[in-house]
Every structure is written in C-alpha cells, then in structure tokens.
Design brief:
Elements: H1 3-11, H2 13-20, E1 24-37, H3 56-59, E2 61-70, E3 95-98, E4 102-109, E5 118-119, E6 152-158, E7 172-178, H4 183-189, E8 192-198, E9 214-224, H5 231-236, H6 250-255, E10 257-261, E11 272-275, E12 280-286, E13 296-298, E14 303-305, E15 308-310, E16 320-325, E17 331-337, H7 340-344, E18 348-354
Helix pairs in contact: 1-2
C-alpha cells in the first residue's frame, strides 16, 4: 500500500492533500505514425457506397498519426492496452483523474509533423495549453503548442471543481484531448483521445467510478482523409485513390470521408459486451468536421441522458456527453448513427448483452 493510501486511511483524504499535495497522474504518451485500416476484421454490415470489394482492404488503409501510451520516459516499450479498452480503436490512451488532482503528460513526437496535446475542460498555464495561435505570449511559453519531430515536452493540467461533474451530472464525465497545431488537419490525421474526470472521492482503487460496473467510450468521427497531413503521401503511393477521380473533382472529398466509430467502420469495432443488469456508462463525443452531427442510437435498450429516458442522443462537432444504461434485453444489438448518409457510410457497430 502506498504512503498516500496509508495516510488516507489514518487521517483522511483532505489532510493527505495538505501534507503531500494533490495526487499527480503521470502518463508517457507519444504521437506515432501507423498504417490504419478502417475495417481490419473484414466485417461489412451495410457495405460502403463506391468501395470496390476487390482490393478493399488497401482502399481502407491510410497512413495516420495516433497517440500511444508508453511505460516510461524512454519511450521504448508500449504500454499494453487492456482488453476492456480495445474498443478505443484509433483513440489515444485514456487519461483519468478526480477533481482536485493533476494530470502530467510527458509527450514525445515520433512523427514527421508538428503536433501537440491540448485538453478540453481542464485547467492549465499558457505553457501547457498545447494550442498554437497568435496570443501575444513570449516564444518560450509556446514550445508545447507545436512540438517538433523527435522532441519531448511536458504538459501539466490541473482538475479544478469546474472541470468535474456539475450538480445533476453523473459521477464521471468525459473530456477530450487532441493536437492543436493546425487543429482540422491534426484531428483528421488521427490525433485525439479521451479524458475521464470523476467527482472527488467517488472512485475505486483502479480509478473507475464506484457507481458503475462497465464503461465504454465511443467517438462518432467522420475522418476526412483529404485533410490529413498524410494526404499527399497516401495519394502518391498509388493505392489509396480511385482511378479517374481528380483531386479537384467535387466528388473526391465525399469519396474519402470515413464514417467511423473510434476509427472503425461497418461493424469492425470490437464487440461491446456487458451483462444484463449491470450499471453501464457510455461516454460519447463527435469529431470536429462539419459532417459530425450525429444521433447515436442503441437497439434493444434505453439509456438515461440528461434526466430523460431515451434510446438516442444528439451530438454536434466536439460535443461530449454521458449516458447511463442498465441493459435488460439479452442479445446482440445494433449501435449506430441514425443520420442516413452516415448509416450508408458504415457508422455502425454491434453490442452484446449477456444473461
């Protein structure tokens, strides 16, 4: 048992903070280049309009940049993603904290592009904002806004009460972090991940809320591959783009919008599995393209959202919400965006409720 835990049992959490200071969660995160396949399992619930069956895997594989977690500051060993979070897909590692705590990120840029890490909702000084714009700040406070390839930078983000659940909220809420050098291109390149913040004193030893049995994080994300930093290299390799379509063709961008859930389409998201009667919390958010207006819909179940019983919620670009479910209907069910174009584009997944 840690010194903090021993003191907490002996004198209480508030006094421990006064003695040791707030708890600091340290993460070692790198931006890495990967070859990302939007349909690695070959599952196809609906088909994608215009996607040829022959060579389809190649057409759905693109060079991207994603956030990975490492075990320490050497960035030599990837930290394995636990089975319960395999469904995060293209999303970066989950960051957690309670109100009153601190998140410290040691970030390394392993890509060939400038990038950063910028959090929503949390508190930070200007040198930990991770967002490049003309704010009149001295150059030394802007280093973390555009970390050069091969360089490392440390961000410190605090979690004040206004970053945690408000009265009437669930005990934990979702925020998002992403690169903010050139935000539209950075996010379409794949640099985005989740943060979960819980009310003070509300979590178990592993950081999960005490009032929840299972958690899922889902990003309804339209990725525009024509806005990726790797657009040119993907085009130059001669595999990614359909013959006869010019870059200036009005149909070109539409052809390379990928309607994903966590960067996976057409049911390729790992099965989301829960048991009947469990307390399940869903955290949902949308990407930032103009097409990212979504209506996530669960078949066979209902959720509690904003104190309302429903089976569908509404998301707008970069909107983050929570919904609580107690599944009562055993079986395998469809989970999808209800916007027609998005259904046809493959923004669908499956979830299973076990007895």
């Amino acid at each position: 048992m840690s010194l903090r835990s021993k003191l907490g049992r002996a004198v209480g959490g508030t006094l421990v903070e006064n003695i040791l200071g707030p708890r600091i969660h340290t993460y070692y995160i790198a931006a890495d280049e990967v070859e990302w396949n939007y349909a690695p399992r070959g599952r196809n619930l609906t088909g994608t309009p215009g996607a040829e069956n022959e060579g389809r895997s190649t057409l759905l594989t693109f060079r991207k940049a994603v956030y990975h977690e490492y075990t320490d500051s050497t960035f030599s060993t990837l930290k394995p993603r636990s089975p319960q979070w395999e469904h995060l897909g293209i999303l970066g590692p989950l960051l957690r904290a309670e109100v009153g705590e601190v998140i410290k990120v040691v970030f390394k840029n392993n890509t060939k592009i400038l990038c950063s890490m910028h959090p929503h909702g949390l508190a930070y000084a200007k040198d930990s904002e991770g967002a490049l714009y003309s704010d009149g700040e001295p150059a030394e406070s802007k280093t973390g806004d555009a970390v050069p390839p091969g360089q490392t930078y440390v961000y410190t983000w605090t979690v004040p009460e206004r970053a945690g659940p408000a009265p009437g909220d669930s005990s934990s809420i979702l925020w998002v972090y992403h690169s903010h050098f050139v935000e539209p291109r950075d996010m379409n390149t794949g640099l985005v991940g989740p943060i979960l913040i819980s009310a003070k004193g509300s979590t178990k030893a592993d950081g999960t809320p005490r009032d929840v049995d299972r958690e899922f994080i889902v990003a309804f994300a339209v990725f525009d591959e024509t806005e990726s930093w790797y657009f040119e290299s993907n085009a130059m390799n001669g595999r990614k783009y359909t013959a006869g379509l010019r870059f200036t063709d009005p149909a070109f961008r539409q052809r390379y919008l990928l309607y994903s859930i966590n960067g996976l389409i057409e049911g390729n998201l790992p099965m989301l599995t829960m048991k009947k009667g469990e307390r399940v919390r869903w955290y949902l958010f949308a990407n930032s393209n103009e097409d990212d207006v979504h209506t996530p819909h669960w078949h066979g179940q209902t959720v509690l959202f904003n104190n309302m019983r429903t089976d569908m919620v509404h998301l707008e670009p970069m909107m983050m919400v929570q919904a609580d479910m107690i599944p009562d209907n055993v079986g395998t069910w469809l989970f999808h965006c209800h916007v027609n174009d998005h259904i046809q584009g493959g923004m669908q997944a499956l979830f299973t409720v076990l007895p």
